[in-house]
Amino acid sequence: MATTGYFRSITVVIDKTVAGASVPGYPKTYDGKAAFTLDGASFVAKTSSGLATMPVDEYTARLDAWKTFVQNEEPGLSIDETTVAGGEAYK
User: Which H helix or E strand runs over 86?
Assistant: First the structure.
């Protein structure tokens, strides 16, 4: 199976701070290649190459589910929203 030609990475680092200091337990890293469960649906772990070669519809479904999973773990987070200058997605 050929790749899509796009780099695929679904990893986010969340840091909660109070008065400039990280809250205990933070920062947390959520890796979209890791296995996770959402609403009874299980998503198996993927390698980088496995993620890169997923059909676009399967990747999009995993990405959408993973974003919902992370937002459920971090109440109030909007994963599509950049809240820190320079925190935009990068390659």
Answer: none
C-alpha span between 12 and 68 (Å, rounded): 13
In sequence order, which ranges of 1-91 are alpha helices (DSSP H)?
A: 48-52, 56-73
Model confidence pLDDT, tens digit, residues 31-85: 999 999 999 999 999 998 898 888 989 999 999 999 999 999 999 888 887 666 6
Distances (CA, A) of 34 to 18, 61, 62, 82: 29, 15, 11, 23
Is-contact 45 31, C-beta < 8 A? no
The structure tokens listed for 1 are 């199976």
Structure tokens at 57: 């519809």
